[in-house]
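SUBJECT: A protein chain and its fold
Encoding: whole-number codes for local backbone shapes
Chain under study, with its fold:
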Amino acid sequence: MRNWFRPSVTSMEGYAPGEWPALEAGVLKLNSNENPYPPSPKVIAALDHIGAELLRRYPDPLARDFCQKVSETFGIPTDWVIAGNGSDDLLTLLVRACSEGDVRSLAYPMPTYVLYRTLAEIQPATVVEVPYQQKGTDWLLPIDQLLEANAAVTLIATPNSPSGHVVRRSDLRRLAAGLTGVLLIDEAYVDFVGKAADRANLDLVREFANVMLLRTLSKGYGLAGLRLGFGIAQPGLLAGLLKVKDSYNVDAIALKLGEVAIADQAYKTETVQKVIAARKQLATELRSLGFLVWPSSTNFLLVKPPKDIARSLQAALKAKGIMIRYFNQPELDDKLRITVGTPAQNAHMVQAISRLL
């Protein structure tokens, strides 16, 4: 059986997403950082206008209408935008196009999004993982070590998962200026940072030809099931990604609904503000129960329960139909990641935790 696959595929573990219960299971699912609120009503209404002709034809391979809507919304040229089947698709394209073996490595700080390592193993490409420097509840980017690695692709998630912290723009700028390879700034959770945060790093793309921003409609727009993301970079960088992408990597329905979602920034902002308010309240309640709660600029919290009960608490909550995320890896095995739900969902979980404690 092993002879069927490349050695790198045989030896790798593969990415393990959060558990997925059936929709009708009645489970409170707070383990995958999904938005607890539905997408814009305009998106739901647009479903009624999906016609047979749209389904009969292949979608636009360059997603031009969707990219145009992104261009108008964020004030960037249309040819600086690329669409993907979720932002993970664009991560795959970047690794596929830029990395290879020992001479074209990937580098990133740890802990972070574990898919980065999986994509490197698939390629395969050498990985340079540099630990974040922790100072209390602060996470300090190991800039010097990342510059020394000078990888073909350096990946920085900001806000980061599972820590929830934002990387300083000055640190990102120093990396962009010092690296000869690509700096990928993964902004999947940027909508939850606060006002105007979604434009904060666009200037780095304008200034540096080796910088790419990555966004998704899964989080702030409440469209995780749609699988649609986009990247922003100068055309010279996007040209290589366009060469290696699937011919029609985003389906026609996703593109049509994505246009509507991007256009309704008012609804997205309203939803995000609800999540931010609920995040603050949830953090306060968990601290009152003895949890250490790291500051978060995302739609989740990284927490350390009192005593050494992270794994057992996650299992006990699961038995009660409440799913949160446990990571069995160094630096995280005494912590939990909890998606911020609605106020009612959060209250239900906190009550269950209180009884278990």
Q: What stands out?
A: DSSP finds 14 helices and 15 strands in the chain. The CA atoms of residues 186 and 318 lie 30 Å apart. The two ends are 47 Å apart (CA to CA). The longest helix spans residues 265-288.
